[in-house]
């Protein structure tokens, strides 16, 4: 028989404590966030469909993005127990800079359309967190304004090669004069990808009001208010534009871009040169040989070629091909600090996030980006410790094995070069 009694006030009191309401809306919104997916849910609630889908969507059937995200989950961690992890060092060195942990923020266009605080808020959050921030050629804040607003930060500038090379040179010179030491040349956009959500939403820059967008915006009044009462969108490097994103991109992008352009840019720029959008081992070798200081494995977050290679599956083979001294960055589908652990263990020097940071920005501006970075840092640190690893530098392929799913079937017609396409080599200790 269960013995019962009448509850006493002292016992009840502890359950009846009412949490005071936090009057700071951003803090309140972020207080129960547990991971980046929670932040995405807040972002969706607060942002009209046109900008939200522009961020959240990918090209065509969005297969590249779904596969890349799945690949980060299809891994198995191999922890070393009884390994002391009290004395932690999660930092990483990239181009002689010390970064707080091996994560950086990807270049993304039109950032002030997602949230009025834009690139400056994101750059400041990155600077506070001790990680690099990338300004896009399609950014909505100038090179100089971003540099001025983030004095302690490390900003990189992402370049699309214009049809008019003189304009590209002028941008590189502006970046240099504003103190940028790293240029990222994006090479996976000979033409614009087909983002079907944007087509269906009728997305244009600047956004156009239709009955559908009006209704959608009416449910997100804070975004509309902020959009209408702050500086109109202007671009870091375009003078002005009206049209769809694909029209802007196709007018700018140069379908004739080739490896000679990488060599040409190498001659123009004496800072760090990163080439972004590498998707085969052969191309990783080519840009490395052309003088790039780093290769960035990426399929543009699945926004260009759909059904593209999964960057994570490419990583061990690129590390093998380029050797231990090469600098390798990776992105697409990274949503958790544990993904960053996987990236580093499999041979990357740094993992990069695009959508994850934009979800934070759309959810709560600078504080939202700061939240994403702190959640991902905590996930990174915890995973490292649970693996029995105390330092970023000690992570290796013995800690993370890739599970075989959706990796290419070996094909003798293209697999003649050992380890080139189609095989994930066995783990090796770096
Ligand atoms: C909204 C948005 C805009 C982007 N704009 C650019 C850009 O201007 N230049 C560029 O090199 N990459 C751009 N990207 C691609 C990112 O730099 C990065 O490769 C991609 O977002 C990584 O995948 P993730 O979003 O899953 O992290 C953009 C991505 C998004 C989501």
From TrEMBL:
> Where does the record place Basic and acidic residues bias?
412-423
User: Could you tell me which PROSITE patterns the record lists for this protein?
Assistant: FMN_HYDROXY_ACID_DH_1, FMN_HYDROXY_ACID_DH_2
Q: Which domain of life is it from?
A: Bacteria
Coiled-coil region(s): none
Residue ranges occupied by any FMN hydroxy acid dehydrogenase domain in the UniProt entry = 28-405
Protein keywords: Flavoprotein, FMN, Oxidoreductase
- Identify the residues that bind FMN: 107-109, 136, 158, 186, 276, 298, 354-355
Q: Which GO terms describe its molecular function?
A: FMN binding; oxidoreductase activity, acting on CH-OH group of donors
Q: Give cofactor(s), names only.
A: FMN
Q: Which Pfam families match?
A: FMN_dh
Q: Which residues form the active site?
A: 300
Entry's CDD domains?
A: alpha_hydroxyacid_oxid_FMN
Q: Which SUPFAM superfamilies match?
A: FMN-linked oxidoreductases
Q: Where does glyoxylate bind?
A: 54, 160, 195, 300, 303
Which portions of the sequence form the region Disordered?
408-430
**Stored PANTHER family:** 2-HYDROXYACID OXIDASE 1, S -2-HYDROXY-ACID OXIDASE-RELATED
Q: Name the family.
A: Belongs to the FMN-dependent alpha-hydroxy acid dehydrogenase family.
Name of the protein this chain belongs to:
Alpha-hydroxy-acid oxidizing protein
